[in-house]
Amino acid sequence: MSEGGELTSGFVELSPEHGEAGRERAARLQLEKAAVLADLGELEMEVRAYRSDVKALRERVAGLETELAGVYASRSWRITSPLRLASRALGGLLERGPPVARDGGGTASETGSARPASSPKGPDSSASELRSLAAREAGTLKSLALSGVHDLCQEKVNLVAGCVGTKSLRDFGGLWAVYGRYLLEPAVSLKAEFASMVDVTPRAEFDEAVRLAKQQNSRLEVEFINDDFRDPGLYAGLRPVDTSILFDVLLHQENYVNVLREISQKTKRFICVAQPCLKESEFFLPSSAALLQFWPEALKDKYREASLWPKEPKVARFTTGYWMWGHSVSHLMDCLYGLGWTLQSGGEIAGIVGPRWDYALLRFVRS
Ligand SMILES: C[S@@+](CC[C@H](N)C(=O)[O-])C[C@H]1O[C@@H](n2cnc3c(N)ncnc32)[C@H](O)[C@@H]1O
């Protein structure tokens, strides 16, 4: 090998004492070496040609990105955004024919070309994907950057405080560690008249938090219902409210769609949901959820990495105290969509709950 890394074809004269056999072997090896060097030379030329192609393509990509940035920044792009989305959805429908079910069958990729429903290459584009795409394009679902749990608590308060016009609100499972903060702080800032807490585990600290909130908002009436909100019997007696809060609780309920249905019927304007969600990339199909409570421990440990999911005892029956579900954001959006709600605003925070999860903050309004 030369200094520049190139192989050279060195030739060594053999003397008579190397013998006939030695000379023949050396000649054979010289020939083989010459052939390999010739192949190598050709390959090196190809590599040089590929490198130059790669360079040209990189330059082309850079040029296209600059052009695209100009288009995205233009006023006309923002104005026509909903039209482009609608035409993409329509294009997908026309390509796959009439839907079998609401989200059934067919595909339309980003470029609008169809993939067979059974394609092994990846998930099909579907209504849920289009809805989350629409949410992103409309700016209602944003990527948020937060530095830590303290900021996250404030974002949860802000999500509820942003439910403009709310005069009555209810927090489902709002006591553990926070003692009603996500109910009472917004109840004060929104000048609400009625705040309700439903939690199966009472906490004495809540009484003090209520006293302080009433100091700031003397018209505030607060009720505490010590009950299990999985129980359908609970809801008949509940007073309807403008806003319902479900923070870090849906992932603990085996019957979360029924819980959402009951809550939906008792909520007039907003439903706020916040919790860790598995990244969409963890699933093959959109709108998916994983029942992780009974996974093998080794797999759970992998998904606990840097997340908020603590080590928990192994259980053999649904247990609300421990993590049960890994929902995707598109799954939660579709569950609410099926009950007549659409995303008004929300964010996904990556990085604070490990590599496999995003923390979702979602505010829904009646469709
Ligand atoms: C993980 S903590 C969430 C606390 C708070 N919402 C937050 O975001 O930090 C779950 C809380 O919900 C309550 N909880 C969970 N499942 C419940 C159920 N089915 N019925 C009533 N309360 C429940 C627990 O007692 C606990 O206070």
Sequence-ordered SSE layout with sheet pairings:
Blueprint: H1 19-73, H2 75-96, H3 127-137, E1 141-144, H4 149-161, E2 168-172, H5 181-189, E3 194-198, H6 205-216, E4 221-225, E5 241-247, H7 256-265, E6 267-278, E7 289-291, H8 297-304, E8 325-327, H9 329-338, E9 341-351, E10 354-366
Parallel strand pairs: 1-9, 2-3, 2-5, 3-4, 5-6
Antiparallel strand pairs: 6-10, 7-8, 9-10
Protein model, in words:
The chain has 367 residues and is α/β, with parallel strands linked by helices. It folds into 2 domains: 21-73; 127-366, Rossmann fold (3-Layer(aba) Sandwich). It is built from 9 helices and 10 strands. Strands 1-9-10-6-5-2-3-4 form an 8-stranded mixed sheet. A two-stranded antiparallel sheet has the order 7-8. β5, α7 and β6 (267-278) form a beta-alpha-beta unit. The model is unreliable at 1-10 and 90-121 (pLDDT under 50).
Question: What is the CATH superfamily label of the largest domain?
Answer: Vaccinia Virus protein VP39
Number of domains: 2
First-residue to last-residue Cα separation: 72 Å
User: Unreliable segments (pLDDT under 50, ≥5 consecutive)?
Assistant: 1-10, 90-121
The assigned CATH architecture of the largest domain is 3-Layer(aba) Sandwich
Series of H and E elements: HHHEHEHEHEEHEEHEHEE
Indicate the CATH class of the largest domain.
Answer: Alpha Beta
Gyration radius, rounded: 31 Å
CATH topology of the largest domain, what is it called?
Rossmann fold
The shape, in one word, is elongated
Helices, by number, come to 9
**Which secondary-structure class do the elements indicate?**
alpha/beta
State the major sheet. Answer: 8 strands, mixed
Q: How would you write the strand order of the largest sheet?
A: 1-9-10-6-5-2-3-4
Strand content: 15-25%
How many runs of DSSP E, i.e. beta strands? 10
Structure ligands = S-adenosylmethionine
Determine the fraction of residues in helical runs and give it as a percent range.
40-55%
Average pLDDT over all residues: 83
